[in-house]
Amino acid sequence: MRAQPPERPYHVLFLCTGNSARSIFGEAILNRLGAGKFRAYSAGSNPAGKINPHTIQLLERLGYPTEGLRSKSWDEFATADAPVLDFIFTVCDNAANEVCPVWPGKPITAHWAVPDPAAVTGDDGKIEAAFRQAFAILQRRIELFSNLPIRGLDRLSLRNQLAGIGTAR
After folding, report:
1. What is the pLDDT of residues 91-134, one digit of tens each?
2. How many distinct helices (H) and strands (E) make up the chain?
3. Which of 29, 49, 60, 166 could form a disulfide with 112 if both were Cys (CB 3.0 to 4.6 A apart)?
């Protein structure tokens, strides 16, 4: 059975533990690159409650809108009135290994591990480089994802494609 397009943009959730950097990048990048075709969200299993300042600085420097971005729990997306999710991408190993809520709909999931830039210590240059690297990895994967012929792929093929994207650097 082919994956049929919804009557609305595909809803995509990026998950991480803290929802302060990588998943926020995923949300911002896909909402720009996939505008009209996708609607991206982000959440965390144990949200930090605020976005890492380096995340906001990099997004703003690259011209991405940051208004409306916030650190939030994945519980918001497991309620009856939450958006029906089509895809869920975990971007950190911790979130991938946690017991997830039951998601409305039957989203296709994939694990796209990205090193945690918020865990990097050292001088400002080293920290900034880690955030740029995480952003670049996600941007490349999201470019590949947003260009997939989703309508023409069955669920298994789509899962395999998404798993392959998760290894792209």
Report:
1. 987 654 556 666 767 899 999 999 999 999 999 999 999 999 99
2. 5, 4
3. 166
- The residues that bridge with 165 in the sheet, in sequence order, are none
**What is the distance between the alpha carbons of residues 43 and 101, in angstroms, rounded to a whole number?**
12
Spatial distance between the Cα atoms of 114 and 40, rounded to a whole number of angstroms: 18
Question: Which contiguous run of DSSP H or E holds residue 6?
Answer: none
Closest CA to 131 of 50, 43, 20: 20
- Written as six digits, the tokens of 159 are 């899962």
Give the pLDDT score at 99.
Answer: 60
Quick one: 46 exposed, middle or buried, by C-beta within 10 A (0-12, 13-18, 19+)? middle
Half-sphere exposure of 123 (CA within 13 A, CB side): 1
- Provide the 3-class DSSP secondary structure of residue 149: coil
DSSP bridge pairs for 38: 10, 35
Instruction: Give me the domains of the chain, ranges plus CATH numbers.
Output: 10-163 (3.40.50.2300)
Cβ atoms of 6 and 86 within 8 Å: the answer is yes
Across the range 10-20, mean pLDDT stands at: 95
Amino acid code (one letter) for 55: T
**To which residue do tokens 């955030």 refer?**
131
Query: Residue 13's CB: how many other CB atoms inside 10 A?
Result: 26
Continuous segment of H or E residues that includes residue 10: strand 10-16
